[in-house]
Amino acid sequence: MNEFELIRRYFARQPVTRADVAVGIGDDGAVLNLRPDRQLVVSTDMLVAGVHFPEGTEASAVGYKSLAVNLSDLAAMGASPAWFTLNLSLPAPDSAWLDGFCAGLFALAQEFDTQLIGGDTTRGPLTIGIQIAGFVPRGEALLRRGARAGDDIYVTGHLGDAAVGLMCLRNELALPQTDRVVMIERLNRPTPRVREGEALRNLASACIDISDGLAADLGHLLESGRVGARVELGALPLSCVYAANRDRIGWDPALVRGDDYELCFTAARANRPLLTSLAARFACGFQRIGVIEAQSGLRLVDATGQTYRPGITGFDHFPAAE
Ligand code: ADP
Ligand code: MG
Question: How far apart are CA 208 and CA 154, in angstroms?
Fold first, then answer.
């Protein structure tokens, strides 16, 4: 199978269903129809085997996660995804692997009506670079800046399950087989909170997705807004599996280990009733975990009122000590 057959067989297989795609895969560039009442939101994320997913991760999970982490960035902006490109570096044209990769990738693409419109394919170490674009109504993008003292802080879903899954894979934690499978699934197939992000337009004052851990990512939101926060550990949303094993797991997987892809957002206190009714529409729920304060810095407080200090601040590819 040569490069062009590979592209045709695997990547040109998604039918073009979006009316805003005038020319998709197959020319030197894609041609897209734009509308004046909307702004384009563009983001990109790269996944490297052995860094962003363990070597040997099943191909469909790699395909799924590559798009999911990009969708999560658009979700954090309150954007509706439309198109993506795929830059793929692959050690060999392995059909079984490509079939699995495409199955995971296109299942998620279809769920969010997102069209693959181009890319590049090369031989090399397994690396996936996706660039994604989507829309927000003009002026309605959710930004990291915008949190005000007194705003409530919320997160979607559960925190820390992906980190617990990774601990299981590394044999740092023994769990019953069914729990282990569920946790590893959260690592491999994070749910991008796209619909939740769209629903938060005009409601959230600031928003970010949690890719490097709550402490680090909420920290970015606080810095952007020049504010601080107090977060109650007891309010952190934990899955049943995490909660049942919290004595062994501790707080850090929920705070600093990353790969959750949940949204962390702030909203004026006056929006509490609206957010409560909105949360009921989404299976993941919105959990209120703390409050924005004028004093800078993030204060994590346990049930006894003591300040908690995590072991590390968050995932960092280039930590300062290097
Ligand atoms: P060029 O010679 O202009 O770089 P290519 O031969 O690399 O073009 O690609 C031909 C077509 O296939 C283009 O439309 C390109 O966007 C698309 N394409 C290549 N690789 C991928 C990929 N991994 N996913 C989606 N589309 C791809
Ligand atoms: Mg060309």
Answer: 11
Dist. CA 132 → ligand 1 center (Å): 16
User: CA–CA separation, 91 vs 6, rounded Å?
Assistant: 13
Does any ligand 1 atom lie closer than 6 A to the CB of residue 81? no
d(CA 11, CA 165): 30
pLDDT digits (tens, 9 = 90+) for 151-181: 999 999 999 999 999 999 999 999 999 999 9
Contacts of 291 (CB under 8 A, 6+ apart): 150, 151, 152, 153, 229, 230
Give the pLDDT of residue 321: 58
- Per-residue pLDDT tens digits for 72-126: 999 999 999 999 999 999 999 999 999 999 999 999 999 999 999 999 999 999 9
Question: Judging by DSSP bridges, how do beta strands 38-48 and 21-23 pair with one another?
Answer: unpaired
**Any atom of ligand 1 within 6 Å of the Cβ of 83:** no
Q: How far is the CA of 28 from the centre of ligand 1 (A)?
A: 8
Total number of residues shown for the chain: 322
Residue nearest to atom 6 of ligand 1 (CA): 4
**Three-state DSSP class for 74?**
helix
Residue 259 has pLDDT above 60, yes or no: yes
Q: Which atom of ligand 1 is nearest to the CA of 116?
A: 25
User: Residue 258 has what pLDDT?
Assistant: 86
Looking only at the bridges linking them, the beta strands covering 286-293 and 152-156 are: antiparallel
